[in-house]
């Protein structure tokens, strides 16, 4: 990273202290297609990209100043390229603007979030955060909303399609504005925040999770700084907010989380398609293994119907396209597509489980997005496997060397 | 479709065998991965087994009616290339006088010494006929009869076994005989491969492979055709959503079927390929051509689709049409036609001599 870039970021950090980083995946880079350079990707999104060194660049957009009503070019943030597939976008824009900007970017088939599913956040807690010192303060946020669950007598106000459509997520700790004057659907909706000393959280968490399923739906996790005061908040969609004194510490944390995600995505793709590779075996997708997600509590027929009806509409949170083919009251097959990456996906959905098969060579990101969204919107407690490998084990398997780099890199 | 009907459906049988070879969790599988657990992996699916020259000569000289390129549903190879399983799935058993006996003799010959010759380094093979459980003993008797016929000639038939599918309460059970137990050193006689069956729910797992001529009932063929059409439609959408303006997209029916079958289409027999090709050409490409005949950017010529959009409106219109979930493509049996030699003349319908209800 150049001195100029550091200086720029530090200056912005002083003025606007909360640096937010978005870990993004270039989803066109995994297959045989030609990976695009970040200058090309962000250029096509309307950015002026100024390269600062080999891996670091400034990103400028025309931004409307509400006070003067004038549009001017503003450097909204900086992109660091880790490899062909992963970028970090650092910004100190206010949270709403930054999320809106990134949400617009990921409408492009070139970019997607990195998906830190509940099992992965749990693994990060178990393997890392829980051992950062019992007296340090940590924070875990759990979020689950059964958006397809709806009592029959509430059908008249169900027309708010917004519930099922994709939208920006609330900031960690923010309350969603329900509004006293709006009707509220009676359905399972749980949002918990545990901010306490790590030792206390650690001693209570397992028992709490055993008693209440939504406490498996981890949505965000706070990483106390390794080198000083403050922390870094990691969200499900790969946003990391700096609450520490040091940008360098934040940057190291982002790089650490990138390495973990990359390693897990590689393992996922290895498990899904390549591990059982054989020279003589037929070179077809028949070798692809399924993702199986079992719901701890079966869905009611009404909830299942609503999911099947709404889960494949144009703007749905699952970003799936397909025509469900009925095989029974609570079973469908969908031979469809992941409409974000535009890659085929075959799904079997029942009231008890989901089975997904992706063609060989497609992006493993879809598996992580499915697990994240199912836990968030369908079933808070799940058991999942890629092939014969438990998803929990798959997302817990990263090199311990990654943790050392947290304090060694500058 | 009830499970006790499906166990007579060769498409269901083959897909079940494929799922039984797929890596899945040991206790929480979709279909019990029995063959995966036993260390087997897929070698070939629906590929003709061509006899070596010497075997062909002996087969002709035997005086018996023998298929010289028998086409098993599936061949699995075991760890260390020691053992292989050679599967044929049937809706029912048959007798030595049946027309199916020709194919069965071919399978018995293929799984003898020619197997190692053709599929080295695999060393040995067991022929496995899969039928409904109630037909298993009759099938075994038939194979024993055919095997002794062959052994009386210069030919050396291979080992064989019979496997049965049975629905019991709410489970689908896969059973086998002593020959299979001995070949693999198994202690059990059967395994539960599907659980939680309901009378009102089709127990089929996700369809991995379909060929029309293997399907016995029109109702199931409609379902399988719908799957193939939806897979091709999804593939087209994936390609076209990312197609830039002013760039030509050109794809054939065969290329689409290769993509959606993970290149398995190449390995299918000629008749199976022809049926699938016809389905996509007539029920999907023709619909695209008829709807977009007067519009810009989309062209269909025989088995080839060409798309080049010059404006966002053209692209948006087409994709909105193809994506619209209310748009249903026909799943009935396609009619084969020939293109006219001169433009403007009507197309000719090719008479269909095959029996759709066979």
What this model shows, in words?
The complex is a heterodimer of chains A (410) and B (358). Chain A is of the alpha+beta class and 410 residues long. Chain A folds into 3 domains: 3-112, TATA-Binding Protein (2-Layer Sandwich), CATH 3.30.310; 118-167 and 186-264, no CATH class; 286-394, Double Stranded RNA Binding Domain (2-Layer Sandwich). Helices cover 29% and strands 28% of the residues of chain A. Chain A contains 10 helices and 19 strands. In chain A, the strands form 2 sheets. In chain A, strands 1, 2, 3, 4, 5, 6, 7, 8, 9, 10 and 11 form an 11-stranded antiparallel sheet that branches. In chain A, strands 12, 13, 14, 15, 16, 17, 18 and 19 form an 8-stranded antiparallel sheet that branches. In chain A, α6 runs antiparallel to α10. Chain A is globular, with a radius of gyration of 21 Å. The model of chain A is unreliable at 12-16, 153-177 and 276-285 (pLDDT under 50). Chain B is α+β, with helices and mostly antiparallel strands. Chain B has 2 domains: 3-199, no CATH class; 218-349, no CATH class. Chain B has 12 helices and 12 strands. Chain B has helices spanning 3-6, 10-19, 34-37, 53-61, 100-110, 113-119, 136-151, 178-184, 218-241, 253-260, 270-291, 312-323, and strands spanning 41-45, 74-77, 83-89, 124-132, 159-168, 171-175, 190-194, 249-252, 298-301, 304-307, 337-338, 348-349. Chain B has a 7-stranded mixed sheet. In chain B, a hairpin with a 2-residue loop joins β9 (298-301) and β10. In chain B, α5 (100-110) packs across α7 and α9 packs across α11 (270-291). Chain B is globular, with a radius of gyration of 23 Å. At the A-B interface, β14, β15 and β16 of A face β1 and α9 of B.
């Amino acid at each position: 990273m150049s001195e100029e870039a550091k200086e720029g970021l530090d200056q912005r950090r002083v003025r606007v202290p909360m640096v937010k980083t978005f870990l993004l995946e270039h989803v066109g880079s995994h297959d045989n297609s030609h990976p695009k350079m970040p200058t090309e990707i962000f250029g096509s999104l309307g950015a002026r990209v100024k390269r600062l060194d080999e891996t670091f660049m400034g990103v400028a957009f025309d931004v409307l100043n509400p006070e003067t009503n004038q549009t001017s070019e503003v450097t909204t943030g900086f992109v660091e390229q880790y490899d062909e597939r992963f970028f970090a976008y650092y910004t100190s824009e206010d949270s709403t603007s930054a999320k809106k900007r990134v949400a617009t970017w990921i409408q492009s088939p070139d970019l997607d979030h990195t998906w830190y599913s509940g099992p992965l956040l749990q693994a990060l807690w178990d393997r890392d955060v829980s051992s950062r010192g019992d007296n340090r303060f940590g924070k875990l946020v759990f979020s689950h909303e059964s958006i397809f669950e709806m009592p029959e007598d509430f059908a008249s106000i169900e027309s708010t399609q917004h519930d099922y459509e994709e939208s920006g997520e609330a900031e960690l700790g923010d309350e969603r504005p329900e509004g006293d004057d709006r009707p509220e659907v009676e359905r399972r909706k749980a949002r918990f925040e545990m901010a306490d000393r790590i030792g206390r959280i650690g001693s209570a968490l397992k028992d709490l999770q055993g008693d209440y399923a939504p406490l498996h739906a981890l949505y965000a996790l706070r990483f106390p700084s390794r080198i000083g005061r403050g922390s870094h908040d990691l969200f499900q969609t790969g946003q990391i907010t700096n609450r520490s004194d040091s940008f360098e510490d934040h940057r190291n944390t982002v790089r650490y989380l990138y390495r973990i995600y990359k390693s897990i995505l590689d393992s996922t793709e290895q498990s899904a398609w390549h591990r059982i590779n054989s020279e003589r075996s037929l070179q077809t997708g028949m070798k692809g293994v399924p993702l199986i997600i079992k719901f701890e509590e079966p869905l009611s027929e009404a909830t299942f119907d609503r999911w099947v009806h709404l889960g494949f509409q144009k703007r749905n949170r699952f970003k799936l396209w397909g025509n469900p083919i009925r095989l029974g009251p609570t079973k469908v097959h969908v031979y469809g597509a992941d409409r974000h990456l535009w890659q085929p996906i075959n799904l079997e959905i029942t009231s008890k489980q989901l089975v997904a098969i992706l063609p060989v060579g497609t992006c493993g990101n879809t598996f992580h997005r499915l697990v994240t969204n199912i836990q968030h919107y369908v079933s808070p407690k799940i058991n999942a496997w890629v092939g014969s490998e438990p998803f929990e084990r798959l997302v817990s398997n990263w090199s311990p060397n990654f943790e050392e780099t947290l304090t060694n890199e500058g | 479709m009830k499970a006790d009907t499906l166990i007579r459906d060769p498409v269901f049988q083959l897909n079940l065998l494929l799922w039984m070879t797929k890596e899945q969790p040991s206790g929480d599988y979709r279909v019990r991965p029995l063959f995966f657990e036993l260390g087997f992996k897929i070698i070939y699916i629906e590929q003709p087994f061509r006899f070596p020259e010497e075997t062909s000569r002996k087969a002709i000289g035997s005086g018996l009616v023998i298929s010289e390129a028998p086409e098993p549903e599936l061949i699995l190879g075991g760890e260390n290339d020691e053992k292989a399983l050679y599967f044929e799935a049937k809706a029912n058993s048959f007798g030595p006088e049946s027309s199916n006996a020709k194919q069965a003799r071919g399978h018995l010959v293929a799984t003898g010494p020619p197997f190692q010759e053709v599929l080295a380094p695999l060393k040995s093979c067991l022929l496995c006929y899969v039928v409904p459980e109630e037909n298993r003993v009759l099938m075994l008797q038939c194979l024993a009869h055919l095997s002794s016929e062959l052994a009386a000639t210069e030919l050396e038939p291979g080992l064989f076994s019979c496997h049965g599918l049975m629905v019991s309460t709410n489970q689908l059970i896969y059973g086998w005989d002593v020959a299979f137990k001995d070949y693999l050193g198994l202690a059990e006689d059967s395994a539960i491969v599907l659980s939680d069956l309901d009378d009102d729910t089709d127990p089929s797992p996700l369809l991995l492979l379909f060929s029309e001529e293997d399907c016995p009932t029109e109702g199931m063929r409609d379902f399988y055709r719908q799957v193939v059409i939806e897979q091709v439609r999804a593939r087209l959408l994936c390609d076209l959503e990312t197609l830039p303006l002013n760039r030509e997209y050109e794809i054939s029916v065969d290329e689409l079927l290769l993509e959606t079958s993970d290149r398995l289409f190449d390995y299918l027999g000629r008749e199976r390929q022809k049926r699938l090709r016809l389905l996509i050409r007539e029920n999907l490409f023709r619909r695209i051509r008829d709807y977009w005949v007067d519009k810009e950017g989309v062209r269909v010529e025989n088995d080839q689709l060409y798309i080049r959009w010059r404006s966002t409106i053209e692209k948006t219109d087409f994709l909105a049409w193809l994506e619209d979930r209310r748009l249903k493509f026909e799943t009935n049996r396609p009619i084969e036609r020939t293109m006219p030699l001169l433009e403007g003349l009507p197309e000719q319908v090719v008479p269909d001599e095959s029996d759709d209800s066979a």
